[in-house]
Amino acid sequence: MSLPPGSRRRRFAASLPLLCLLALSFAVAAAADGASQDDGPNLPSCNNPFELVKVKIWVDGIEGEDLAGLTASFGASLPEEANESTQLPAVFSNPLNGCSNSSSKLSGSVALSTRGDCDFETKAKVAQSGGASALLVINDKEELYEMVCSGNDTSLNISIPVVMIPKSAGDAINKSMEGKRVELLLYAPTRPVVDFSVIFLWAMAVGTIVTASLWQEFGTSGHNDERYNELLKESSSTGTGNDDEKEILDISAKGALVFVITASTFLVLLYFFMSSWFVWLLIVLFCIGGVQVMLLLLQLIKCRNCPQKTLDLPLFGEVSIVSLVVALFCLAFAVVWAVDRRASYSWVGQDVLGICLMITVLQLARLPNIKVATVLLCCAFVYDIFWVFLSPLIFHQSVMIVVARGDNSGGESIPMLLRFPRVFDPWGGYDMIGFGDILFPGLLVAFAFRYDKENKKHLANGYFLWLVIGYGFGLFFTYIGLYLMNGHGQPALLYLVPCTLGVAIILGLVRGELKKLWDYSPESSSMTNPSGEA
User: Fold this and answer.
1) From the candidates 250, 384, 431, 452, which is the catalytic residue?
2) For residues 417 and 422, what is the distance between their CA atoms, to the nearest angstrom?
3) Which residues pair with 135 in a beta bridge?
Protein backbone atom coordinates (compact mmCIF):
# COMPACT_ATOMS: atom_id res chain seq x y z
CA MET A 1 0.00 0.00 0.00
CA SER A 2 1.60 3.22 -1.15
CA LEU A 3 1.22 6.33 0.93
CA PRO A 4 2.33 9.94 0.78
CA PRO A 5 5.48 10.39 2.90
CA GLY A 6 3.84 12.51 5.55
CA SER A 7 1.10 10.02 6.26
CA ARG A 8 3.18 6.86 6.69
CA ARG A 9 4.26 7.50 10.25
CA ARG A 10 0.72 8.47 11.25
CA ARG A 11 -0.54 5.18 9.81
CA PHE A 12 2.17 3.28 11.71
CA ALA A 13 1.03 4.86 14.98
CA ALA A 14 -2.61 4.13 14.14
CA SER A 15 -1.77 0.47 13.59
CA LEU A 16 -0.73 -0.14 17.19
CA PRO A 17 -4.17 0.49 18.75
CA LEU A 18 -5.63 -1.85 16.10
CA LEU A 19 -3.25 -4.63 17.12
CA CYS A 20 -4.06 -4.06 20.81
CA LEU A 21 -7.76 -4.23 19.99
CA LEU A 22 -7.37 -7.49 18.09
CA ALA A 23 -5.47 -9.04 20.99
CA LEU A 24 -8.65 -8.95 23.10
CA SER A 25 -10.00 -11.91 21.15
CA PHE A 26 -7.22 -14.34 22.23
CA ALA A 27 -9.57 -16.55 24.28
CA VAL A 28 -12.65 -16.40 22.11
CA ALA A 29 -11.63 -19.52 20.18
CA ALA A 30 -12.44 -21.53 23.25
CA ALA A 31 -15.22 -19.68 25.01
CA ALA A 32 -16.47 -20.98 28.33
CA ASP A 33 -19.83 -22.65 28.68
CA GLY A 34 -21.06 -20.05 31.15
CA ALA A 35 -21.54 -22.31 34.19
CA SER A 36 -20.02 -21.86 37.63
CA GLN A 37 -19.95 -24.15 40.62
CA ASP A 38 -18.93 -24.85 44.20
CA ASP A 39 -17.34 -28.18 45.07
CA GLY A 40 -19.57 -30.57 46.97
CA PRO A 41 -19.18 -34.02 48.52
CA ASN A 42 -18.81 -36.94 46.11
CA LEU A 43 -21.65 -39.22 47.23
CA PRO A 44 -23.28 -42.09 45.30
CA SER A 45 -26.59 -40.18 45.26
CA CYS A 46 -24.92 -36.89 44.33
CA ASN A 47 -22.55 -37.57 41.45
CA ASN A 48 -24.73 -37.11 38.38
CA PRO A 49 -23.03 -35.43 35.40
CA PHE A 50 -24.16 -31.88 34.74
CA GLU A 51 -26.23 -31.68 31.55
CA LEU A 52 -27.65 -28.78 29.58
CA VAL A 53 -31.45 -28.86 29.49
CA LYS A 54 -33.93 -27.53 26.96
CA VAL A 55 -37.13 -26.17 28.54
CA LYS A 56 -39.95 -25.98 26.00
CA ILE A 57 -42.82 -23.69 27.00
CA TRP A 58 -46.47 -23.45 25.93
CA VAL A 59 -48.71 -20.51 26.94
CA ASP A 60 -52.42 -21.33 26.52
CA GLY A 61 -51.42 -24.05 24.06
CA ILE A 62 -49.17 -21.79 21.95
CA GLU A 63 -45.52 -22.86 21.87
CA GLY A 64 -43.00 -20.20 22.87
CA GLU A 65 -39.25 -19.83 22.63
CA ASP A 66 -37.13 -22.58 24.22
CA LEU A 67 -35.30 -21.81 27.46
CA ALA A 68 -32.04 -23.33 28.71
CA GLY A 69 -31.13 -24.86 32.05
CA LEU A 70 -28.60 -27.11 33.80
CA THR A 71 -29.24 -30.30 35.78
CA ALA A 72 -28.10 -30.79 39.38
CA SER A 73 -25.62 -33.40 40.57
CA PHE A 74 -28.55 -35.23 42.19
CA GLY A 75 -32.05 -36.24 41.13
CA ALA A 76 -33.45 -38.18 38.19
CA SER A 77 -32.03 -37.96 34.68
CA LEU A 78 -33.94 -36.37 31.81
CA PRO A 79 -34.63 -38.05 28.44
CA GLU A 80 -32.52 -37.06 25.43
CA GLU A 81 -35.48 -36.61 23.08
CA ALA A 82 -38.45 -34.27 23.47
CA ASN A 83 -40.94 -36.99 22.43
CA GLU A 84 -39.78 -39.12 25.36
CA SER A 85 -40.68 -36.44 27.93
CA THR A 86 -44.05 -35.24 29.24
CA GLN A 87 -45.68 -31.83 28.95
CA LEU A 88 -46.57 -30.67 32.50
CA PRO A 89 -48.20 -27.56 34.02
CA ALA A 90 -45.91 -25.02 35.70
CA VAL A 91 -46.68 -24.00 39.30
CA PHE A 92 -44.79 -21.59 41.57
CA SER A 93 -44.12 -22.86 45.11
CA ASN A 94 -45.67 -20.99 48.00
CA PRO A 95 -43.51 -19.84 49.74
CA LEU A 96 -41.56 -18.94 46.65
CA ASN A 97 -38.20 -20.07 48.05
CA GLY A 98 -39.48 -23.66 48.22
CA CYS A 99 -37.91 -24.27 51.63
CA SER A 100 -41.10 -25.44 53.37
CA ASN A 101 -44.28 -27.28 52.40
CA SER A 102 -46.10 -25.44 49.65
CA SER A 103 -49.66 -24.25 49.93
CA SER A 104 -49.86 -24.42 46.13
CA LYS A 105 -50.87 -27.76 44.68
CA LEU A 106 -47.67 -29.21 43.13
CA SER A 107 -48.93 -32.70 42.28
CA GLY A 108 -48.15 -33.69 38.67
CA SER A 109 -46.56 -30.31 37.90
CA VAL A 110 -43.17 -28.69 37.34
CA ALA A 111 -42.55 -26.77 40.56
CA LEU A 112 -40.67 -23.48 40.40
CA SER A 113 -38.78 -21.92 43.31
CA THR A 114 -36.19 -19.20 43.70
CA ARG A 115 -32.61 -19.75 44.82
CA GLY A 116 -31.64 -18.99 48.42
CA ASP A 117 -32.73 -19.38 52.09
CA CYS A 118 -32.01 -23.16 52.13
CA ASP A 119 -29.90 -25.71 50.30
CA PHE A 120 -30.86 -27.26 46.98
CA GLU A 121 -31.54 -30.71 48.46
CA THR A 122 -34.16 -29.24 50.82
CA LYS A 123 -35.96 -27.54 47.92
CA ALA A 124 -35.93 -30.84 45.99
CA LYS A 125 -37.26 -32.82 48.99
CA VAL A 126 -40.09 -30.32 49.55
CA ALA A 127 -41.09 -30.36 45.88
CA GLN A 128 -40.94 -34.16 45.74
CA SER A 129 -43.01 -34.55 48.93
CA GLY A 130 -45.63 -32.23 47.42
CA GLY A 131 -45.99 -34.54 44.41
CA ALA A 132 -44.09 -32.41 41.87
CA SER A 133 -42.73 -34.23 38.82
CA ALA A 134 -39.76 -31.88 38.44
CA LEU A 135 -38.21 -28.82 40.08
CA LEU A 136 -36.91 -25.70 38.37
CA VAL A 137 -34.72 -23.49 40.58
CA ILE A 138 -34.56 -19.88 39.36
CA ASN A 139 -31.08 -18.41 39.82
CA ASP A 140 -30.63 -14.84 41.05
CA LYS A 141 -28.09 -14.24 38.24
CA GLU A 142 -27.86 -14.92 34.51
CA GLU A 143 -25.24 -17.66 34.77
CA LEU A 144 -26.10 -21.33 35.11
CA TYR A 145 -24.93 -22.53 38.53
CA GLU A 146 -23.93 -26.18 38.96
CA MET A 147 -26.03 -27.38 41.91
CA VAL A 148 -24.16 -29.80 44.19
CA CYS A 149 -24.98 -31.39 47.53
CA SER A 150 -24.15 -29.24 50.53
CA GLY A 151 -23.95 -32.00 53.19
CA ASN A 152 -22.94 -35.62 53.70
CA ASP A 153 -26.44 -37.11 53.75
CA THR A 154 -25.89 -40.64 52.40
CA SER A 155 -29.65 -41.30 52.50
CA LEU A 156 -30.46 -38.58 49.96
CA ASN A 157 -33.20 -39.97 47.72
CA ILE A 158 -34.35 -37.48 45.13
CA SER A 159 -36.30 -39.16 42.31
CA ILE A 160 -37.38 -36.07 40.34
CA PRO A 161 -35.25 -34.01 37.92
CA VAL A 162 -33.80 -30.81 39.43
CA VAL A 163 -32.81 -28.06 36.99
CA MET A 164 -31.32 -24.58 37.41
CA ILE A 165 -32.52 -21.84 35.02
CA PRO A 166 -31.17 -18.26 34.75
CA LYS A 167 -32.99 -15.28 36.22
CA SER A 168 -34.23 -14.07 32.80
CA ALA A 169 -35.84 -17.45 32.10
CA GLY A 170 -37.64 -17.36 35.45
CA ASP A 171 -38.86 -13.83 34.74
CA ALA A 172 -40.16 -14.94 31.33
CA ILE A 173 -42.10 -17.85 32.84
CA ASN A 174 -43.50 -15.65 35.62
CA LYS A 175 -44.67 -13.06 33.09
CA SER A 176 -46.29 -15.77 30.94
CA MET A 177 -48.23 -17.18 33.92
CA GLU A 178 -50.17 -13.96 34.55
CA GLY A 179 -53.74 -15.24 34.09
CA LYS A 180 -52.65 -17.92 31.61
CA ARG A 181 -51.93 -21.65 31.67
CA VAL A 182 -48.25 -22.44 31.19
CA GLU A 183 -46.94 -25.92 30.43
CA LEU A 184 -43.31 -27.01 30.36
CA LEU A 185 -41.42 -29.94 28.86
CA LEU A 186 -37.88 -30.79 29.94
CA TYR A 187 -35.30 -32.86 28.05
CA ALA A 188 -31.51 -32.97 27.74
CA PRO A 189 -30.34 -33.47 24.13
CA THR A 190 -26.79 -34.76 23.76
CA ARG A 191 -24.26 -32.36 22.27
CA PRO A 192 -22.02 -34.02 19.64
CA VAL A 193 -18.39 -34.49 20.66
CA VAL A 194 -17.23 -32.82 17.44
CA ASP A 195 -19.28 -30.59 15.16
CA PHE A 196 -18.25 -30.26 11.53
CA SER A 197 -18.20 -26.48 11.93
CA VAL A 198 -14.77 -26.88 13.53
CA ILE A 199 -13.41 -28.15 10.21
CA PHE A 200 -14.65 -25.07 8.35
CA LEU A 201 -13.34 -22.74 11.07
CA TRP A 202 -9.97 -24.51 10.94
CA ALA A 203 -9.89 -24.08 7.16
CA MET A 204 -10.76 -20.36 7.42
CA ALA A 205 -7.99 -19.71 9.96
CA VAL A 206 -5.31 -21.62 8.06
CA GLY A 207 -6.51 -20.20 4.73
CA THR A 208 -6.33 -16.63 6.05
CA ILE A 209 -2.69 -17.06 7.10
CA VAL A 210 -1.69 -18.73 3.82
CA THR A 211 -3.51 -16.09 1.74
CA ALA A 212 -1.95 -13.22 3.69
CA SER A 213 1.53 -14.75 3.35
CA LEU A 214 1.16 -15.27 -0.41
CA TRP A 215 -0.66 -12.00 -1.06
CA GLN A 216 2.49 -9.94 -1.48
CA GLU A 217 3.78 -12.51 -3.97
CA PHE A 218 0.65 -13.03 -6.07
CA GLY A 219 -1.96 -10.51 -4.94
CA THR A 220 -0.01 -7.44 -6.04
CA SER A 221 1.90 -8.79 -9.02
CA GLY A 222 1.42 -8.04 -12.70
CA HIS A 223 -1.39 -5.71 -13.56
CA ASN A 224 -2.24 -5.26 -9.87
CA ASP A 225 0.94 -3.21 -9.46
CA GLU A 226 -0.66 -0.79 -11.90
CA ARG A 227 -3.60 -0.50 -9.50
CA TYR A 228 -1.20 0.48 -6.71
CA ASN A 229 0.15 3.21 -8.94
CA GLU A 230 -3.37 4.36 -9.80
CA LEU A 231 -4.36 4.48 -6.14
CA LEU A 232 -1.16 6.38 -5.44
CA LYS A 233 -1.93 8.91 -8.14
CA GLU A 234 -5.43 9.38 -6.71
CA SER A 235 -3.97 10.15 -3.28
CA SER A 236 -1.26 12.32 -4.82
CA SER A 237 -3.87 14.42 -6.61
CA THR A 238 -4.88 15.86 -3.25
CA GLY A 239 -1.54 17.68 -3.13
CA THR A 240 0.23 15.52 -0.55
CA GLY A 241 2.99 14.34 -2.84
CA ASN A 242 4.18 11.04 -4.29
CA ASP A 243 6.09 8.07 -2.93
CA ASP A 244 6.85 4.58 -4.27
CA GLU A 245 7.38 2.99 -0.91
CA LYS A 246 4.90 0.52 0.51
CA GLU A 247 3.73 0.91 4.05
CA ILE A 248 5.40 -1.58 6.42
CA LEU A 249 5.43 -1.70 10.21
CA ASP A 250 8.54 -3.45 11.55
CA ILE A 251 7.93 -4.85 15.03
CA SER A 252 10.87 -4.58 17.44
CA ALA A 253 11.54 -6.57 20.61
CA LYS A 254 10.84 -3.47 22.71
CA GLY A 255 7.62 -2.85 20.78
CA ALA A 256 6.48 -6.42 21.48
CA LEU A 257 6.89 -5.92 25.23
CA VAL A 258 5.11 -2.57 25.14
CA PHE A 259 2.29 -4.16 23.17
CA VAL A 260 1.62 -6.88 25.75
CA ILE A 261 1.66 -4.37 28.62
CA THR A 262 -0.71 -2.07 26.71
CA ALA A 263 -3.01 -4.95 25.78
CA SER A 264 -3.16 -6.12 29.42
CA THR A 265 -4.04 -2.61 30.60
CA PHE A 266 -6.70 -2.29 27.92
CA LEU A 267 -8.14 -5.70 28.85
CA VAL A 268 -8.50 -4.77 32.52
CA LEU A 269 -10.20 -1.49 31.59
CA LEU A 270 -12.64 -3.43 29.41
CA TYR A 271 -13.30 -5.86 32.27
CA PHE A 272 -14.29 -3.05 34.63
CA PHE A 273 -15.94 -0.63 32.20
CA MET A 274 -17.35 -2.83 29.41
CA SER A 275 -20.79 -1.65 28.28
CA SER A 276 -23.02 -1.85 25.22
CA TRP A 277 -21.93 1.60 23.98
CA PHE A 278 -18.29 0.52 24.01
CA VAL A 279 -19.05 -2.63 22.01
CA TRP A 280 -20.99 -0.45 19.57
CA LEU A 281 -17.89 1.71 19.20
CA LEU A 282 -15.89 -1.42 18.36
CA ILE A 283 -18.55 -2.46 15.84
CA VAL A 284 -18.37 0.96 14.13
CA LEU A 285 -14.56 0.84 13.98
CA PHE A 286 -14.73 -2.74 12.72
CA CYS A 287 -17.08 -1.69 9.91
CA ILE A 288 -14.97 1.34 8.95
CA GLY A 289 -11.80 -0.75 8.82
CA GLY A 290 -13.56 -3.54 6.93
CA VAL A 291 -14.94 -1.13 4.30
CA GLN A 292 -11.52 0.44 3.70
CA VAL A 293 -9.82 -2.92 3.37
CA MET A 294 -12.50 -4.47 1.14
CA LEU A 295 -12.36 -1.41 -1.11
CA LEU A 296 -8.60 -1.70 -1.51
CA LEU A 297 -8.63 -5.47 -2.11
CA LEU A 298 -11.45 -5.31 -4.64
CA GLN A 299 -9.74 -2.46 -6.50
CA LEU A 300 -6.55 -4.52 -6.71
CA ILE A 301 -8.23 -7.54 -8.29
CA LYS A 302 -10.66 -5.86 -10.67
CA CYS A 303 -10.42 -6.36 -14.44
CA ARG A 304 -7.36 -4.89 -16.16
CA ASN A 305 -9.20 -4.03 -19.37
CA CYS A 306 -12.36 -2.66 -17.77
CA PRO A 307 -13.31 0.81 -19.07
CA GLN A 308 -12.03 3.51 -16.73
CA LYS A 309 -14.79 6.12 -17.05
CA THR A 310 -14.72 8.79 -14.37
CA LEU A 311 -17.07 11.15 -12.59
CA ASP A 312 -16.32 14.52 -11.00
CA LEU A 313 -17.87 14.43 -7.53
CA PRO A 314 -18.00 17.29 -4.99
CA LEU A 315 -15.44 16.88 -2.19
CA PHE A 316 -13.98 13.75 -3.82
CA GLY A 317 -12.92 15.17 -7.18
CA GLU A 318 -12.44 12.84 -10.16
CA VAL A 319 -13.41 9.24 -9.29
CA SER A 320 -13.69 6.26 -11.62
CA ILE A 321 -17.17 4.76 -11.97
CA VAL A 322 -15.86 1.28 -11.14
CA SER A 323 -14.22 2.57 -7.94
CA LEU A 324 -17.45 4.35 -6.97
CA VAL A 325 -19.52 1.19 -7.49
CA VAL A 326 -17.03 -0.90 -5.51
CA ALA A 327 -17.01 1.67 -2.68
CA LEU A 328 -20.82 1.74 -2.49
CA PHE A 329 -20.92 -2.07 -2.48
CA CYS A 330 -18.38 -2.27 0.38
CA LEU A 331 -20.25 0.37 2.39
CA ALA A 332 -23.61 -1.37 1.86
CA PHE A 333 -22.05 -4.72 2.81
CA ALA A 334 -20.78 -3.36 6.15
CA VAL A 335 -24.02 -1.49 6.93
CA VAL A 336 -26.17 -4.57 6.24
CA TRP A 337 -23.95 -6.66 8.51
CA ALA A 338 -24.08 -4.09 11.33
CA VAL A 339 -27.89 -3.80 11.12
CA ASP A 340 -28.48 -7.58 10.88
CA ARG A 341 -25.53 -8.69 13.05
CA ARG A 342 -27.85 -10.78 15.26
CA ALA A 343 -29.43 -12.62 12.32
CA SER A 344 -28.59 -16.27 11.73
CA TYR A 345 -26.66 -15.43 8.55
CA SER A 346 -24.66 -12.50 9.95
CA TRP A 347 -21.60 -14.70 10.55
CA VAL A 348 -20.90 -14.60 6.80
CA GLY A 349 -20.49 -10.82 6.72
CA GLN A 350 -18.49 -10.79 9.94
CA ASP A 351 -16.09 -13.42 8.61
CA VAL A 352 -15.62 -11.62 5.28
CA LEU A 353 -14.86 -8.29 6.97
CA GLY A 354 -12.63 -9.97 9.53
CA ILE A 355 -10.59 -11.94 7.00
CA CYS A 356 -10.04 -8.81 4.91
CA LEU A 357 -8.84 -6.93 7.99
CA MET A 358 -6.44 -9.70 9.01
CA ILE A 359 -4.95 -10.02 5.53
CA THR A 360 -4.22 -6.29 5.56
CA VAL A 361 -2.73 -6.33 9.09
CA LEU A 362 -0.42 -9.19 8.09
CA GLN A 363 0.69 -7.06 5.12
CA LEU A 364 1.15 -4.00 7.31
CA ALA A 365 3.01 -5.57 10.26
CA ARG A 366 6.25 -7.53 9.83
CA LEU A 367 8.55 -9.59 12.05
CA PRO A 368 12.18 -8.96 11.02
CA ASN A 369 13.66 -12.13 12.56
CA ILE A 370 13.11 -15.04 14.96
CA LYS A 371 14.47 -13.05 17.91
CA VAL A 372 11.61 -10.55 17.75
CA ALA A 373 9.17 -13.37 16.95
CA THR A 374 10.29 -15.19 20.12
CA VAL A 375 9.79 -12.10 22.29
CA LEU A 376 6.37 -11.32 20.80
CA LEU A 377 4.95 -14.86 20.81
CA CYS A 378 6.35 -15.75 24.24
CA CYS A 379 4.83 -12.57 25.69
CA ALA A 380 1.53 -13.35 23.96
CA PHE A 381 1.78 -16.95 25.27
CA VAL A 382 2.13 -15.74 28.88
CA TYR A 383 -0.51 -13.04 28.32
CA ASP A 384 -3.06 -15.57 27.09
CA ILE A 385 -2.45 -18.11 29.86
CA PHE A 386 -2.45 -15.52 32.63
CA TRP A 387 -5.69 -13.79 31.65
CA VAL A 388 -7.53 -17.08 31.02
CA PHE A 389 -6.23 -19.39 33.76
CA LEU A 390 -4.54 -17.26 36.44
CA SER A 391 -6.65 -14.08 36.51
CA PRO A 392 -9.44 -15.83 38.55
CA LEU A 393 -6.98 -15.95 41.47
CA ILE A 394 -7.08 -12.12 41.53
CA PHE A 395 -10.45 -11.18 39.99
CA HIS A 396 -12.40 -14.34 41.01
CA GLN A 397 -13.24 -15.03 37.35
CA SER A 398 -11.39 -15.30 34.06
CA VAL A 399 -10.96 -11.72 32.81
CA MET A 400 -10.30 -12.80 29.22
CA ILE A 401 -13.39 -15.00 29.01
CA VAL A 402 -15.67 -12.42 30.67
CA VAL A 403 -14.55 -9.77 28.15
CA ALA A 404 -14.72 -12.18 25.19
CA ARG A 405 -18.27 -13.25 26.11
CA GLY A 406 -19.35 -9.64 26.65
CA ASP A 407 -20.99 -10.44 30.01
CA ASN A 408 -21.50 -6.75 30.83
CA SER A 409 -22.21 -5.49 27.33
CA GLY A 410 -25.99 -5.76 27.25
CA GLY A 411 -26.09 -8.77 24.95
CA GLU A 412 -23.64 -7.38 22.39
CA SER A 413 -20.46 -9.28 21.52
CA ILE A 414 -17.02 -8.12 20.41
CA PRO A 415 -16.78 -8.50 16.60
CA MET A 416 -13.05 -9.34 16.41
CA LEU A 417 -13.50 -13.07 15.80
CA LEU A 418 -14.31 -15.58 13.10
CA ARG A 419 -17.31 -17.80 13.72
CA PHE A 420 -19.13 -20.66 12.06
CA PRO A 421 -22.54 -22.10 13.07
CA ARG A 422 -22.71 -25.51 14.76
CA VAL A 423 -24.87 -27.16 12.14
CA PHE A 424 -25.35 -30.54 13.84
CA ASP A 425 -25.53 -29.31 17.43
CA PRO A 426 -29.08 -29.34 18.86
CA TRP A 427 -28.05 -26.37 20.99
CA GLY A 428 -26.95 -24.39 17.97
CA GLY A 429 -24.48 -21.61 18.64
CA TYR A 430 -21.12 -20.99 16.99
CA ASP A 431 -17.55 -22.22 17.09
CA MET A 432 -15.24 -19.21 17.22
CA ILE A 433 -11.62 -18.18 17.00
CA GLY A 434 -10.24 -14.77 17.93
CA PHE A 435 -8.27 -12.61 15.53
CA GLY A 436 -5.27 -12.70 17.86
CA ASP A 437 -5.03 -16.49 17.51
CA ILE A 438 -4.62 -16.01 13.76
CA LEU A 439 -2.60 -12.79 13.61
CA PHE A 440 0.23 -13.54 15.99
CA PRO A 441 1.18 -16.97 14.62
CA GLY A 442 0.41 -15.50 11.18
CA LEU A 443 3.16 -12.90 11.61
CA LEU A 444 5.67 -15.73 12.08
CA VAL A 445 4.32 -17.73 9.12
CA ALA A 446 4.51 -14.64 6.89
CA PHE A 447 8.12 -14.09 8.01
CA ALA A 448 8.92 -17.70 7.11
CA PHE A 449 7.52 -17.17 3.60
CA ARG A 450 9.61 -14.03 3.08
CA TYR A 451 12.71 -15.77 4.44
CA ASP A 452 12.24 -18.75 2.11
CA LYS A 453 11.73 -16.47 -0.87
CA GLU A 454 14.71 -14.21 -0.17
CA ASN A 455 17.01 -17.20 0.45
CA LYS A 456 15.63 -19.12 -2.56
CA LYS A 457 14.51 -22.10 -0.50
CA HIS A 458 12.24 -24.74 -1.95
CA LEU A 459 8.98 -25.68 -0.28
CA ALA A 460 10.27 -28.84 1.43
CA ASN A 461 13.59 -27.46 2.71
CA GLY A 462 12.13 -24.09 3.70
CA TYR A 463 10.12 -23.06 6.77
CA PHE A 464 6.82 -21.76 5.41
CA LEU A 465 5.22 -25.15 4.66
CA TRP A 466 6.20 -26.64 8.01
CA LEU A 467 4.94 -23.66 9.99
CA VAL A 468 1.59 -23.79 8.17
CA ILE A 469 1.35 -27.50 9.04
CA GLY A 470 2.37 -26.71 12.64
CA TYR A 471 -0.30 -23.99 12.89
CA GLY A 472 -2.90 -26.44 11.58
CA PHE A 473 -1.92 -29.02 14.22
CA GLY A 474 -1.89 -26.31 16.90
CA LEU A 475 -5.51 -25.43 16.11
CA PHE A 476 -6.38 -29.13 16.16
CA PHE A 477 -4.84 -29.50 19.64
CA THR A 478 -6.73 -26.37 20.76
CA TYR A 479 -10.08 -27.96 19.99
CA ILE A 480 -9.02 -31.29 21.48
CA GLY A 481 -8.19 -29.41 24.69
CA LEU A 482 -11.53 -27.60 24.54
CA TYR A 483 -13.51 -30.83 24.31
CA LEU A 484 -11.44 -32.59 26.98
CA MET A 485 -12.12 -29.65 29.31
CA ASN A 486 -15.87 -29.91 28.66
CA GLY A 487 -16.06 -26.58 26.86
CA HIS A 488 -14.28 -24.53 29.54
CA GLY A 489 -12.13 -21.69 28.23
CA GLN A 490 -8.79 -22.57 26.67
CA PRO A 491 -6.01 -20.11 25.72
CA ALA A 492 -5.41 -21.06 22.08
CA LEU A 493 -1.84 -19.68 22.09
CA LEU A 494 -0.98 -22.34 24.68
CA TYR A 495 -1.04 -24.77 21.74
CA LEU A 496 -0.33 -22.50 18.77
CA VAL A 497 2.96 -20.96 19.97
CA PRO A 498 4.78 -24.30 20.55
CA CYS A 499 3.45 -25.63 17.23
CA THR A 500 4.72 -22.62 15.24
CA LEU A 501 7.60 -20.93 17.07
CA GLY A 502 8.74 -24.28 18.46
CA VAL A 503 8.78 -25.83 14.98
CA ALA A 504 10.76 -22.89 13.55
CA ILE A 505 13.40 -23.06 16.31
CA ILE A 506 13.76 -26.86 16.11
CA LEU A 507 14.10 -26.79 12.31
CA GLY A 508 16.65 -23.98 12.60
CA LEU A 509 18.70 -26.00 15.09
CA VAL A 510 18.58 -29.17 13.00
CA ARG A 511 19.59 -27.30 9.83
CA GLY A 512 22.22 -25.19 11.56
CA GLU A 513 20.44 -21.97 10.56
CA LEU A 514 19.12 -20.79 13.91
CA LYS A 515 21.76 -18.07 14.33
CA LYS A 516 20.94 -16.68 10.89
CA LEU A 517 17.20 -16.80 11.62
CA TRP A 518 17.74 -15.20 15.04
CA ASP A 519 19.57 -12.11 13.75
CA TYR A 520 18.15 -12.09 10.23
CA SER A 521 17.96 -8.68 8.52
CA PRO A 522 17.11 -8.81 4.80
CA GLU A 523 19.33 -6.20 3.18
CA SER A 524 17.28 -6.12 0.00
CA SER A 525 14.12 -5.23 1.90
CA SER A 526 15.78 -2.59 4.04
CA MET A 527 17.27 -0.87 0.97
CA THR A 528 14.21 -0.90 -1.26
CA ASN A 529 11.44 -0.52 1.30
CA PRO A 530 12.37 1.77 4.19
CA SER A 531 9.94 0.89 6.93
CA GLY A 532 8.58 2.21 10.13
CA GLU A 533 9.27 0.53 13.45
CA ALA A 534 7.13 -0.26 16.46
Assistant:
1) 384
2) 16
3) 111, 162
